[in-house]
Amino acid sequence: xxxxxxxxxxxxxxxxxxxxxxxxxxxxxxxxxxxxxxxxxxxxxxxxxxxxxxxxxxxxxxxxxxxxxxxxxxxxxxxxxxxxxxxxxxxxxxxxxxxxxxxxxxxxxxxxxxxxxxxxxxxxxxxxxxxxxxxxxxxxxxxxxxxxxxxxxxxxxxxxxxxxxxxxxxxxxxxxxxxxxxxxxxxxxxxxxxxxxxxxxxxxxxxxxxxxxxxx
Length: 216
Prior knowledge:
The protein is α+β, with helices and mostly antiparallel strands. It is built from 4 helices and 4 strands.
């Protein structure tokens, strides 16, 4: 038994359906190709962006490292300066304490020399010498004659103050009228000469520092 012939209407419907399937398949293939292209492009852009971020991070890290390394010499210099200043202050305090306790060796000879220096630079001929309490007891009564002999000036009228001065050693010289005062005490001299001494001590400490570093 033979199959009945399809009607023209059925043939047309079949052709339309077949053409629709073919178009649908083409559209699906294009969509898949477009999707693959979009995914590949997105992956490429993401990898590019990741590389750019990584490079930017490396550049920033290098910049920060260079900045840090650039500050190291400054920090080292500042630290050395602070330590040097601390050391200088320790030396200054040690010198001051030694002057208070020892008075610089021969206190009598020292007082005569300091008093003569001060009187020799002041105007007039009548002077009063102020001594530390210990020095006043030890050699105060004869100090005036010692100063006149040191200066070889018999015309000077030199007296030692009845009350001791608040000094650790040395002498404070005043003229009889109270118009001139020369503080030649040991601590006052240390303060006057400290800028020069500080420079000399600082140079000595700096010179010794590299040697100490090598030994360490």
